[in-house]
């Protein structure tokens, strides 16, 4: 789907979108359309109780006096509340409506309210982003799609006072779009296709954007002593991989990098501690943390972020097998610490332990953020819209929370403490991989990870609730959300880049 920016002016075909803030009179492009149609737009608005509230839309088909097929009047909500997300939502809602409607081209002419903090040119780029994000489709495996189910919308045109300026904003947002799309594709792929090896192979695409890619296989990881990660993958026919992505965008290439680590379990059966059959298909997205890290790396590289960032993905498949690890096995992690594996379904932390240790040991980062679909318990605690944030550092926690607020990927800080840490002491090894009693399972999981972090700022994001959406919203269809891509990109943009 093609995006372009143009000078304001009436289009000679396609659909034309104008807007209005809540409770305000039609003005700008909307007023112009109303005049051209001899009042038909304002009449349609009052006939449908349109006030300009957020999400409202009025549609005029084959409007007399205009050259286009359709006019849509979109509500922006209260003028004082209009922000980036408002424009993205308008773009998204219109794109969803038109995607398979038969329409090919849509032109937006959304005037920003007068005292708006955001420039009209940035607003134009935000509309394009929303439209593209919401139009995401994954049709790779459909061979018999009905013609009427296929997308028709192929051109998004957005009017901006300074189209060149809008294009500059779009360059950055296009990088965000591409990171999100890359992640959604990875997370949506079925697990017979997206094995650890295939995931690492696809990440090679980042090389074209200047990211250095390294992949370690079982042989290399064995040499490094990664018994914790390797134990999880040993029951699978698919080889475990450690994917390392290195982006050096800071003026000082040797400055300490940020380290992002993702859990990449390409399918989680639970292993010998096998999961019930019902709902197990969801475990194809147990690599969403790794997916988000890879997508964020793509965004950072594409927009040439002036920061050094390392992304590491621990990629394994957790299967039951004659060679699978058993509950009560003791494994030795790269850190030297030993782990009693009491539940093979608590595998994500075992993968992260070695991936984090490796990144920390080799790259001496200034901070670490890990992302993982780690626990069902976080879904119970926070629901499916907010991810859990665990951190050993208040400043990093605040930066992450603010970044999440800014991009609509909310986080909520969860407690940690010695009383939880005690619960993972083991009678036979340095620790066990589950807490006692089953309560506070997201917290004991975070405590486990913390045992592999040396004294540097670290945060763990439990995205088990937010990685997959059963309903669409204004900027995404249902399915893989790519939660974390925009958050990590914003974290870097707001805090880690050269001035
Ligand atoms: N991948 C799951 C967590 C999960 C659940 C992600 C639902 C997405 C949706 C994880 O590996 C797991 O199985 N966790 C166990 C831990 C338990 C055995 C301590 C859980 O949450 O039940
Ligand atoms: Mn599991
Ligand atoms: Zn898992």
In words, what does this structure look like?
Strand 14, helix 12 (394-407) and strand 15 (411-413) form a beta-alpha-beta unit. Strands 7-8-10-9-13-17-14-15 form an eight-stranded mixed beta sheet, with helices on both faces. It has a six-stranded mixed beta sheet with strand order 1-6-5-2-4-3, with helices on both faces. It has helices spanning 28-36, 40-47, 84-98, 120-134, 163-188, 196-203, 218-224, 227-233, 288-302, 348-363, 376-382, 394-407, 418-421, 441-450, 485-496; strands at 2-6, 15-20, 57-61, 70-75, 105-109, 155-159, 212-216, 241-248, 258-268, 308-318, 329-332, 338-341, 367-372, 387-391, 411-413, 431-432, 458-462, 468-469, 479-480. It is elongated, with a radius of gyration of 24 Å. The chain has 499 residues and is an alpha/beta fold. The site of manganese (II) ion (MN) has 4 residues, from loops.
